[in-house]
Structures are given as structure tokens and as C-alpha cells.
Amino acid sequence: MELTALSLSEIAARIRAGSVTSTEVTQACLARIATYGPKLDAFITVMKAGALAQAQQLDAEQKAGKLRGPLHGVPVALKDNIDTAGTRTTAASALFEDRVPSVDAPVVTRLKDAGAVIIGKTNLHEFAMGYGETSYWGPARNPWNLAHNTGGSSSGSGAAVAAALAYGALGTDTGGSVRIPASYCGIVGLKPTYGLVPIRGIIPLVVSLDHCGPITRTVADAALMLNTLAGYDLLDITSVEHGKEDYVAALAQPVKGFRLGMPAGYFDTLDPEVAKAVQEAITVLGRLTRGVTDVALPAVSANPGAFGESLAYHEQYIKNAPAKYMLATRRNLEHQQSDPLKAADYIRAKWNLELLRRTVDDSFTDFDLVVLPTQRILPPLLDELLKRDHDPQPMDVSITSNCGPFDAYGLPAVSIPCGFSKSGLPIGLMIAGPHFSEGKVLALAQAYESATEWHTMRPPLRPDTVKPPVMKFDGTSPPK
User: Fold this and answer.
1) Catalytic residue among 135, 155, 177, 208
2) Percent over 90 (pLDDT), the chain
3) What is the C-alpha to C-alpha distance for residues 151 and 133, in angstroms, rounded to an integer?
4) Is 153 exposed, middle or buried (0-12, 13-18, 19+ CB in 10 A)?
5) Cα separation of 172 and 62, whole Å?
6) How confident is the model at residue 336 (pLDDT cuts 50, 70, 90)?
7) Residue 377 CA to its chain's centroid (Å)
8) Has 177 been annotated as catalytic?
């Protein structure tokens, strides 16, 4: 625990200094995975042999005077919708139980080039279509209370990082799937500007909304990972060209002159404990900056094009092997099939999305960044979500989450811990800014982190922690 409790930045520094080897660090993470993996269901595939071989190779390179990069020797995890050459990538579905890609996704290549050890593939909501409770391998558990949801769809990445099974992880974010697990697990989750980090080689949900970003225990760790992940990819149709930035260096910029806004509509229908924690956090931020005022962001309308993009990937799979999908996912896709989108409606939705992204930065005229709750509710019980999944009527997620609009905007947004409920469940604060303002967003997040102690809190996991059962059902009878 002594080694695994360190932050990514701290362990990277120790490896560089030679006070600990990558092999020792990797073995420490694998030992924790062996103890807590069965309790948390955070991993679908633990890459034990490959991770140890990587670590030993990196140790040999370091002895020879070669350091690959800033993540040299550090074990990190990958959401299991991110392709890994020679290791299965399942998207938490029986459909892809034996799917083994032949090449790494670009983000994986970049992590390896920077020296990261890939320790395993983490659990997620099947095909990233929800909040983490629906997986062929069973739902990932929240390390703060194993009966509760981790948030999703990057559920296993959130659980693995919060429980110190890995120093960082990659998640994907289409409607909040990096930031929601960060909020529910009391850690940091960064969704970069749309197109800044390539998504090629990642099983898509909605390509026009999909993002990839780091999940870590500190803001500095997220900045360090972003330095490695960001960059143009010619073969990725979503990738954008943007000048190289040093996000770690950007953390040092002063935040005293920042003007903050609380966007209207995002503070409605909050759980009282969420409202209290977020308001206290905003009070702290107000003292650190020029202050906080009420502001407005453009309205985000429903995007019917999202259904078309999702179905474009799954159309043949759901037609040929519907029984391979879990009930909630199958219903979602069948609903999309039964209500086909007209081409003209899809094109209009795309036009509206492009116009929104071109103009949203104009809102940041009298303020630099916005601050708001990540989630409006506390982490729910897994059983509550499983019951909802059995209900054929879809849930309006906008009543629980503030994340989705920022995927539509394409803006950088980070969730950081800002408190806990009386029952010990984490609460998250979101900070967002205009396109490519990651440096400012992360600087403010670190200023808040430095002024508080929420990021130092650790889940009360013990080897004898009991794993409570959750409801199970076969798709035809009620949950049991």
C-alpha cells in the first residue's frame, strides 16, 4: 500500500530517481489487484505477464541510461473499449468476448512510447451506453461503498484509480463517462477539448461526441498524462491540429485574475448534500480568484443524430447476434432501429452541433471559466440502476448529470473531488472553459486541490470488506 498510495507524479519521480524499480511498482499494483479485484470487478483483463515483462524491459532500459518519457515504468490501466494489440478488447460485451485487435489504438502507442506499463483492461458499461451497471462481467463496484455505482461508462477505470490498483487510467467520455466516475469515486477526471486526443482505435459510441481522457488521483497526474495523449492524428477524422502545450507547466500560472461563472440551470434540483458541498467549494474558489458571478451558456437541444451514429456501428451486430447484447443495451439499439432517423434530420442535427461548437466560446466574454456540480445526485445503489435497466422506458439522464452539454460544446472539463455526503459518498465539482483552455482549467483545479484536502481521502477498503450481492435477471423475468 505504501507504494500504490503514491500519486502517478510521485511514483514516476521515484522511478526516475532509481529509488524504486518499475518491476517493484508493477508487482505492488498486481498484489492489490489480486486482493481487491474480486471485490471491485474493476478489471475485465489483468495483463499480469505482459505488464511484468514490460516493467522488466523498462528497468533494463533505465539501467542502460535510457528513459522513454515522463511515464517511464508507471502502471496504468485502459478502459476495455480501447484497442490493445494481442490483448482482447471486449467493450464489456459477450459479442466481443474473444475480439483481439492486431494493433494498438494511438493513445496506447503514445502511453507506451512515454514509458507506461499497461497493467490491464478495465470494466465498463457495455459498449459505453450507460452509467456502469450493465456489463457482461458484472458491474464495477464503488470503492467507497461496494453496494453503490461507480458512475460510467468508465466504471472500472474510476474504481481502479480510486482503489489504488493503478496510478492512472484512460476513459472515454460521450455524455460524462470520464467525469461521472471521477465524481462518484472521489478522484480527477479530465475530458479534453474535442479532437485534442485521438479516438481512433476506440470502439465508438457517438463519434461526433466521443472523447478520450485521463482518470487520476491528482490534477498534476491528469496534466502529466495529457501531455502524452494530446496531439494530431491524420487518420482520425475527429482529430484537430493544435499547437503543442505543456499542461504540467501551465499548472504554475496564477489564478488570482480568473473570473468565474456559475452557469444558469446547472444548479437546479440538486441533492441537498451536493448543493452544500459545491457551494462551499465555490466559496473557496471565489477567494482564490477575482470572484464568481451568475452566467449563461448556450442551450443544448436534443441530438437525434446521436442515435444514428450509434446504430451505424452496431447495425449489423444487433441484426445478426441480438442475444449477445445485454438487455438494456439491446433495448436501446432496438429502439433506435424501430425509429429510424431520416437523413435530413441527421444532417440538420450535425449542422446545429457544428454551429454550437463554433459559437460557444463567444459566451466566455466576461468570465474565463465556469464552475458547477459534476453530478446533481449522490452515487446511487447498483440495485436501483439495475431495476431501472429492466424498465423499458428510458431515463432522462439530464435530471441527474451536468456533463452531457460539455460533450456537445466540445469544451475541456474536469471533475475534481469537493466533499463527501454524511454516508461517506464522494461529491464532484466540474470546471470547464473555452476550447483548448486545458491549461487554465487544470490550473484552477490544482489551486482548489491545494487549498483543500479532499484529494487525500482514501476509500475504506480492507481485505475483509464484504462484497454485497446485486440483483440479477435474464432479460425475461423481473430482477431477483
Assistant:
1) 177
2) 90
3) 8
4) buried
5) 32
6) confident
7) 18
8) yes
For 249, the domain range is 8-254+377-456
- Answer whether residue 386 is part of any domain: yes
Q: What one-character-per-residue DSSP string does 432-470 give? A: E-STT-HHHHHHHHHHHHHH--GGG------TT------
- Is 79 known to be catalytic? yes
The Cα–Cα gap between 189 and 169 comes to: 10
For residues 468 and 136, what is the distance between their CA atoms, to the nearest angstrom?
A: 18
Domain count, the chain: 1
127-160 tens-digit pLDDT: 999 999 999 999 999 999 999 999 999 999 999 9
- Choice among 153, 208, 310, 363 that is catalytic: 153
For 83, the grid coordinates are 484497442
Tell me if 301 is assigned to some domain. no
Say what angle helices 22-40 and 48-63 make with each other, to 10 degrees: 160
CA distance 347 to 262: 32
Give a yes or no: residue 381 inside a domain. yes
Residue spans of alpha helices (H) in 247-381: 247-250, 272-288, 305-320, 327-338, 343-359
E strand or H helix at 108: helix 106-113
Instruction: Summarize pLDDT for 237-265 with one digit per residue, the tens.
Output: 999 999 999 999 999 999 999 999 999 99
pLDDT digits (tens, 9 = 90+) for 186-203: 999 999 999 999 999 999
How many residues in the chain?
A: 480
Catalytic residue selected from 9, 22, 79, 440: 79
Quick check: 227 and 246 in contact, CB under 8 A? Answer: yes
Q: What is the DSSP letter of 401?
A: B
CATH number at 33 reads 3.90.1300.10
For every residue of 181-242, DSSP letters joined together read: HHHHHTSEEEEPSTTTS--TTB--S-TTT-EEEEEESSHHHHHHHHHHH----TT-TT----
Residue 474 lies in a domain: no
**What is the biggest distance separating any 2 CA atoms in the chain, rounded to whole angstroms?**
61
Q: Alpha-carbon distance 73 to 114, whole Å? A: 9
What's the whole-number mean pLDDT along residues 212-236?
98
